[in-house]
Amino acid sequence: MKRIAGIFLIAFLGGAVSLGLYKAFEKKQYYLNSRPEGIPIRQVSYNPSAAFNQPDFEAAASVSIHAVVHIKSEFQKKSLVYDDFFEFFNFGGRPQPREYSTPYTAMGSGVIVAQDGYIVTNNHVVQDATDVTVTLNDKREYKARIVATDPSTDLALIKIEEQSLPFLTYGNSDDVRIGEWVLAVGNPFNLTSTVTAGIISAKARNINILGSQGAIESFLQTDAAVNPGNSGGALVNTRGELIGINAAIASGTGYYTGYSFAIPVNIVRKVVGDFMKYGKIKRAYIGIFYREIDDQFAKEKGFTDLRGIYVDDVAEGGSAALAGLKSGDVIIRIDNIPVNGKAELMELVAQKNPGDNVTVVVNREGKEYELPLTLQSEETKLVAEKNSKQVIQGATFEVLSDNEKARLNVDYGFKITSLTNGKLKNAGISAGFIVLSVDRKPVRTTQDLKELLSNRQGGVLIEGLYPNGLRAYYGIGL
Predict the structure, then answer these.
(1) CA-CA distance, 436 to 412, in Å (whole number)?
(2) What span, in angstroms and rounded, lies between the C-alpha atoms of 89 and 209?
């Protein structure tokens, strides 16, 4: 009897569980299938990428690979510029350029930006090349001519004679966000049509690789793998829009170790447009001498905010002076875009043309002012610099040009263009001498120059160099 009762109890419990599961399932189905009046049922399809919250790169990759080309450049002299972009953290001694009895070959990438054969690449891929060969993704091969090059942006435009080519459309690098997914498309190690993925790691990076005072360095930093051969290739967003031209990597070996850098497409668009129209870049200038604000400088000036660019001085007759900017102003926005460093300022101005109007917002003694400003051309800038000559202690001073700064590897200085009888000439200083500091204080602006050399009593120590690079020091009694 006990055995029969046990079996009956098990059967009963099993039935109860089954009934409960049925009711639960029936209830679940009710909630799934019923809805409040007026709300439609939506059919949801399964998407593996969405299920795991992964971006879909297929469309962007399929568009990009057909518009990215392989470039083979031949040189009679090996260009050390190319190596710089893949070994710029290697501070060892650099070899001298070598002449070759047979042409030296370098590989790179390029991006078709117009259906009639215009291709943008890096300057260091084709600079001084005697022969340039372009291979399309479909293996067609062409000889290319160099339209124009620009070392200050590391961009070049070349052209092949063909029509109806696939090309990439420009995106907007100002809209790029840190953390955004991107693809790098190029030909690393001569491996054609290679696509790698990463994110934007940082914006407005100045890595001091272009080696010129007038260089425009405001790179997009990404962790997408880039190696030798990727130079000049495309950095695209997930919509397949061009947002940058890959240029360099951070490495001590010359191979990818984590970070790569691309020239923002807004600069690319401006440079390519100028190359096509004029064969050279039409640069815009704002006409200021400036410095970034760090914690120490902010404490010296009593600033509570480290944002912005500090205006040391303005060029007489320049854009900034005509707009009403003054020494001591802090530029915080241009056209409502925040400006917090040199790279951001240079990138914003580099996108503009001479004659463009911009709105500059400055902080002046704690108050914000909006100043409309018209950007000037290089020719107007040179005139403004000439008008900035200062005559002090019998010597005529003028601001160093960008070319002189780049050649001498300095960021500031005033050159003595002529001397009359006076204490500076009597101390042995010759025309051409470049004053860098007085009493160990840098001479960055005309205001510095006046304060440190005018109406001074006692002795001063003047430090500087001559155009041949010779350093010199003079102790002078004023």
Answers:
(1) 7
(2) 10
Angle, CA 312 vertex, CA 439 and CA 429 arms, to 5°: 35
Do 272 and 157 touch, CB atoms closer than 8 A? yes
Give me 88's structure tokens.
């710029």
Determine the pLDDT at residue 391: 76
The winner for highest mean pLDDT among 111-120, 181-190, 390-399 is 111-120
Question: Tens digits of per-residue pLDDT, 151-183?
Answer: 888 999 999 999 999 999 999 999 999 999 999
Catalytic residue list: 124, 154, 231
**How remote is the C-alpha of 429 from its chain's centroid?**
40
- Between 2.40.10.10, 3.40.50.300, 3.10.129.10, 2.60.200.30, what CATH number should domain 66-159 receive? 2.40.10.10
> Which residues of the chain does CATH 2.40.10.10 include?
66-159, 173-278
412 Cβ contact list (under 8 Å, min separation 6): 289, 400, 405, 436, 442, 443, 444
- The first and second tokens of residue 335, run together, are 């056209």
Q: Give 26-38 pLDDT, tens digit per residue.
A: 443 333 333 344 4
Closest C-alpha among 124, 87, 125, 127 to residue 109? 125
- pTM for the complete prediction? 0.67
- Cβ atoms within 10 A of the Cβ of 277, count? 9
Superfamily the domain 173-278 falls into: Trypsin-like serine proteases (2.40.10.10)
HEC string for the chain: CHHHHHHHHHHHHHHHHHHHHHHHHHHHHHHHHCCCCCCCCCCCCCCHHHHCCCCCCHHHHHHHCCCEEEEEEEEEECCHHHHHCCCCCCCCCCCCCCEEEEEEEEEEEEEECCCCCEEEECHHHHCCCCEEEEECCCCCEEEEEEEEEECCCCEEEEECCCCCCCCCCECCHHHCCCCCEEEEEECHHHCCCEEEEEEEEEEEECCCCCCCCCCCCCEEEECCCCCCCCCCCEEEECCCCEEEEEEEEECCCCCCCCEEEEEEHHHHHHHHHHHHHHCCCCCCECCEEEEECCHHHHHHHCCCCCCCEEEEEECCCCHHHHHCCCCCCEEEEECCEECCCHHHHHHHHHCCCCCCEEEEEEEECCEEEEEEEECECHHHHHHHHHHCCEEECCEEEEECCHHHHHHHCCCCCEEEEEECCCHHHHCCCCCCCEEEEECCEECCCHHHHHHHHCCCCCEEEEEEECCCCCEEEEEEEC
Of 132, 123, 70, nearest in space to 272 by CA: 123
d(CA 291, CA 312): 7
Question: What CATH number should be reported for the domain whose range is 389-477?
Answer: 2.30.42.10
Give me the residue label for tokens 């001084």.
Answer: 128
